[in-house]
């Protein structure tokens, strides 16, 4: 019991204090003493809330040090539209001259980030475009293409050209026909005026934007701190369902297992990473984290209360609600939860089959051997003669288990309650081969 309390306490402390690391990180750049700064923010990998948090922090630091230029080094296949728009808005609001350097690709949601800067440069053979929404429905396409048009107008680019990257119905004579999504190479984008110029490397970009007015230049490159790395990992739409699956499998296995062991630790760590990362990424508010903790505590209480009642149901509903609220969108939440439920169900099924033959897990199997020589009689016929008979439980009834009735060992089923072993019981109903019992103590209450 003491071991369990220590682990739960550590888990809760990690959830509460992990966000503090985010606020303490990223201040070292202020100690630089160069007279002029060029600040570089990498935009790599899948776009999600974690990446958005990092980029917005980078823009804020560049403003605090009064950088002369802000370069976004982009290499992304896209990602979440909401996070991409959040990044775009932050770029548009800054007063620092901005440059988007496409160092490989800026596709899908990455398009709106690239066109948010005042200047766009790209390496030879880079790709920009292919910004079709998922799901590919009219309301999503309309919203997304409108967002692209709006940003293009603000930065002086052709709104129709960027809209054609998201809407297959847009037709541009000699450039794009109906039914296809526009995607451009560096050379094509330069000819159409979307990309301003070609640059072979990041150093070349820095050289070109550095003028005689900017001297004693210090190049500062933003780097993710620990909390942002966790948030970026957890916000990834492919990682979040895996963490949920690990959490569900770990907790359910722990509930089926007396004591507190490795499955419970793994489950708590998985849920801790999921909620902690979502909180640090800004996808989950503090009350969502609190809702999950309350649900977890209610399940812990349920473990020590006979039967399964209000604590268990409320705890499960609280956890499900907090999981849904931790995602940036309901659609992503439902997809991730569905995947987690199916995957965890399959894993638990095969795990239970493995448990039945693996002595390591023998503690969660009924240990009493049902030997005929020991008086056990299989219940495969009508047992109505036992109605009203009294006996004593051999194993805990959760609700099924074993009892001795009329000097015979039989399988019994408790009626909606938990009955400990070595408890006095009475048979209240017999349904064919099913023997339903109730605690005598409860009957007398």
From TrEMBL:
Instruction: Return the InterPro entries for the record.
Output: ClpP/crotonase-like_dom_sf (IPR029045), Membrane_assoc_protease (IPR052165), NA-bd_OB-fold (IPR012340), NfeD-like_C (IPR002810), NfeD1b_N (IPR056738), NfeD_membrane (IPR056739)
Work out whether the entry's keyword set contains Flavoprotein: no
Q: What is its main location?
A: membrane
Instruction: Provide the transmembrane region boundaries.
Output: 238-257, 264-281, 287-305, 333-352
* Residue intervals of the NfeD integral membrane domain: 238-353
Regarding the membrane, this protein is recorded as:
Multi-pass membrane protein
Does the record bear Transmembrane helix in its keywords? yes
- Please, which domain of life does this record's source organism belong to? Bacteria
Q: Pfam families per the record?
A: NfeD, NfeD1b_N, NfeD_membrane
The NfeD1b N-terminal domain, residue ranges: 38-214
> Which keywords does this Swiss-Prot/TrEMBL entry list?
Membrane, Transmembrane, Transmembrane helix
One GO cellular-component annotation of the UniProt record comes to: plasma membrane
Q: Where in the cell is it found?
A: Membrane
Give residue ranges for domain NfeD-like C-terminal. 384-438
Query: What is the protein name given in its UniProt record?
Result: Uncharacterized protein
Organism of origin is Tepidanaerobacter acetatoxydans (strain DSM 21804 / JCM 16047 / Re1)
